[in-house]
Amino acid sequence: MFSAPDDATAQRMRNARISACTALALTDLAEGPIWGYAGRTLSGAVTSAQGTGWLRVVAEHPDKAHGKLWDGPKTAQELLPPAIPRPVLHDVHDWQAAGWAYRAELYQHTDATVISRSPVLEHDPALPKTWWTKLRTALDCLAEVPTERIAVREEYIRRAIPEYTGCDIGQIEWSTAHGDFHWSNLAGPDLTILDWEGWGQAPVGFDAAQFYLYSLHTPPRPPVSARPSATSSTPQPHAWQN
Q: What is the mean pLDDT of each run of 10 residues along the chain (242 residues)?
């Protein structure tokens, strides 16, 4: 998702990944591991006696190694139902070294591929209708999960919406949301929802609204007259276009 950080940060995170692999008895398979923002995370495939997995290493200053973002994936594993498709978190390992706190998260490996390298979708994702059905079911199920976690602060909503829309805010109805619902956190062809750091309470429909905005650059559906007939040799429109 992001470029490699400065050399010192990159080497520190690579060393942390080596430490995590040693502690969890893993063999690193990642020839080109994936960087998070500013080198905060480093992720890639690993293997162990149990098979192939996915290792994500997170770094934070010790006084910030707690709270919503730090514990999001762990609490998601503990509290979210199986109807919400996501990689299983098998193990968590915490340690500190040289003034940094680290957390290694060992996930189930999935063959699903992220829909877009960018949060904003710029192409037809060609997803089957079953993907969209599962997406709706997952969001409906997530909305009903009880939690005290906060994904979006009410103070922010009451400040930002009038500032950008000129509309006043009345009573806000809340439900549970992913909180960062965009195309690079969604995988297919079997629906998989990634990155559960920031999940929690948000205004009803928050994930759907985010998803819609990140989809606005998708090529528009062609007019009916321009669509191929059922007998044409031209490929039929994808589910996204229907």
A: 90 97 96 91 94 96 93 97 95 96 96 92 92 97 97 95 92 97 95 96 97 89 50 34 30
Same domain, residue pair 43 and 92: yes
Instruction: Return the closest-CA partner of residue 13 out of 100, 75, 90, 116.
Output: 100
Nearest to 42 by CA among 33, 30, 51: 33
- Parent domain of 16: 7-108
Same domain, 89 and 131: no
Determine the pLDDT at residue 230. 39
Residue 76's region, left for phi above 0, alpha for psi from -120 to 50, else beta, is alpha
Q: What is the H or E stretch that residue 2 is in? A: none
Question: Are 239 and 127 spatial neighbours (Cβ–Cβ below 8 Å)?
Answer: yes
Name, in order, each residue with C-beta under 8 angstroms of 185's C-beta and a sequence gap of 6 or more: 114, 119, 178, 193, 194, 195
DSSP 45-93: EEEETTEEEEEEEEEE-GGGSSHHHHHHHHHHHHHS-TTS----EEEEE
Last residue of a domain, one of 108, 134, 157: 108
> For 126-139, what is each residue's pLDDT tens digit?
999 999 999 999 99
Question: Distance between CA atoms of 179 and 80, rounded to whole angstroms?
Answer: 14
Give the per-residue pLDDT at 130. Answer: 95
